[in-house]
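dude i think i finally got it to work??
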Amino acid sequence: MSVELSNIKSYLRITHDIDDAFLTDLVEISKAFIKEQTGVEYTNGDKVYEQAILFYVAHLYDNRSAVTEKTVNTVPFTLDAMIKHIKIRGQYESGGAK
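look at this
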């Protein structure tokens, strides 16, 4: 799955066009957030990075209100684990970690 708007909307089960601009902004925000956390730039076709973007877009979209009655984690556990993986996998790919 890529980070195209149609895929984001399918993942979130959104059938209307009202939030298209907002979702597009959330994709860019997610890319920037993950890059800041990992130091790794998004490259097209990186499935792990794309899934992390989807998770973070979903988190931001579902928790867009400044006030909520439900408990909200700053970053969901699954996304946190993926961010850690993205951050350290370069060491494995380059042979830097043993």
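The chain has four helices and no strands.
im so relieved honestly
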